[in-house]
Amino acid sequence: MPLTEFELIRRFFTYPSPGAVLGVGDDAAIVRAGRGRDLVITTDMLLAGRHFRADADPGRLGHKALAVNLSDIAAMGAVPRWATLALALPRADARWLAAFSRGFMRLARRHGVDLVGGDTTRGPLAVCVQVVGAVPVGQALRRDGARAGDDVWVSGTLGDAALALECARGRLRLTPRERAPLNARLDTPAPRVGLGVALRGIAHSAIDVSDGLVADLGHICERSKVSAVVEFARVPASAVMRRHLQRPAARTALLAGGDDYELVFTAGRAQRAALLRLARRLRLKLTRIGSIVRRGGAPVTVLGAGGRPMRLPRTGFDHFD
Amino acid sequence: MPLTEFELIRRFFTYPSPGAVLGVGDDAAIVRAGRGRDLVITTDMLLAGRHFRADADPGRLGHKALAVNLSDIAAMGAVPRWATLALALPRADARWLAAFSRGFMRLARRHGVDLVGGDTTRGPLAVCVQVVGAVPVGQALRRDGARAGDDVWVSGTLGDAALALECARGRLRLTPRERAPLNARLDTPAPRVGLGVALRGIAHSAIDVSDGLVADLGHICERSKVSAVVEFARVPASAVMRRHLQRPAARTALLAGGDDYELVFTAGRAQRAALLRLARRLRLKLTRIGSIVRRGGAPVTVLGAGGRPMRLPRTGFDHFD
Lengths: 321, 321
Fold this sequence. Notes:
Helices cover 34% and strands 26% of the residues of chain A. With 321 residues, the first copy, chain A, is an alpha+beta fold. In chain A, the strands form 3 sheets. In chain A, strands 8-10-7-11-9-12 form a 6-stranded mixed β-sheet. A 4-stranded mixed β-sheet of chain A has the order 3-6-4-5. In chain A, helix 2 (58-75) runs parallel beside helix 3 (94-110). Chains A and B meet through helix 1, strand 2, strand 3, helix 2 and strand 4 of A and helix 1, strand 2, strand 3, helix 2 and strand 4 of B. Strand 2 of chain A pairs antiparallel with strand 3 of chain B, so a sheet runs across the interface.
């Protein structure tokens, strides 16, 4: 006998919601942000065949569907608090759901996020997550605060997820040993929530790298009415990436590959020492890759060998490409 | 040239967000609930082929996708404040999007809701909406507050949307003049937000009728650990419904048809006069259809001719039917 929706919800998506006044099971969840808190709201939809393969590992998919939303919250400097999940499934497959919810909930618990609401329905596989976070009033990191003279920083390494995707599509051949860490970046990204919170009062602007460095830094420039100059040689690359950096596909992945979910942010020069201390405390690489200048020409210029502007192959992932 | 995602978002989904600190255009929206407010969070996903036809009128679809979420907020007694919208579309069709956003935003403005975030992507047509509302701390209407001795009330009339669906599926024949008001109930439901807010401090429990009267009242009974007895003759029916009430399909629609988005609620007998005054003030029919009793037997019993319990054809809409 097929499971009914209510049984499914109860079995796989009812968890204690210690941070909620009322969790799953009513018309809506009730939560309390606390005094002096702004709320930060984001949503993302992942579709089979578009953002992941229909036969993707459900545990990793559960992780990623939440991670991409936590990354948006991180880029605001907020603490993620509550999530809702709407799921369309071709059939009520208990094993798939168990694995999906394990991946989702493991990441949720790691960040203290309560799953407070949901909706399941039959249809082509699709996952829509919404996350609500909280931040002290006025302290959110925004895209529109970059100023000429700011340094441009980025966390971790860039382009690894895009390299993994190039391999999966057969456009690039790497050894299995090279692929494993790249696949982990693509399938189970680590949202930089701790970094985002720590950047409050330090960064002037921030964004997460979901569409690629050039495109996302370009969003900061556009909203802040400034331009950015990045030195290619400074852009942090993983060991695998460095090994293949002579290939155009790798350089494209580094500068324009989406799905890394690192943070790009800008901060005044006076913050350099503080940011290097922060990197040590978080055990997360933070690299200064360039600077913000007054608006002019392209939003983002990348300087290559000899300080010459590089031609950028494409400026990022467009969802209607 | 196809529109890019960013152009689409700017063109059709960027509206002033007077109630938000920061609206569409950053990683996430920033909003402020105000002191002493609980937040109420809900989400619903509508899929082409499942919840609506792929060729459905986009304006009505925009209305309905928001309305079903506002209805959940209404059932909590909260004021809807902010919405996010994730949209999967087979192609970036400007005319379709213009009509969809008109339908969505007209209803949003009517209820003072700001569209603060979104995500668009290419894929099989799917609409996922989340709404966050606010309610004074501790005053939300929940499903778990019904008490033995309560009256059971319902707003408006029931089963009209289900009758429209029966017609659309060719299982019932009605005249065009009969169908028009039923189709309006199905396509552009009016969420009972004003009623929900007014029921604070009056109702002991509430739910919206999205799965059918028997199923939804059953949820109240289950969560409140009580049972309910409903008199069939009292269940409010529209003129068209009354005309066809001899047909089993019509009786099923009245008792078990989903998609009406009326509110079912329970309240003490002392509130009868207050509720009738409220009905006059809101110009919305409120009908007392039965009472809550101590738990025993079926969660919901419907008494028909001669006070005999009716056999209920099915107990509601299951999303994995």
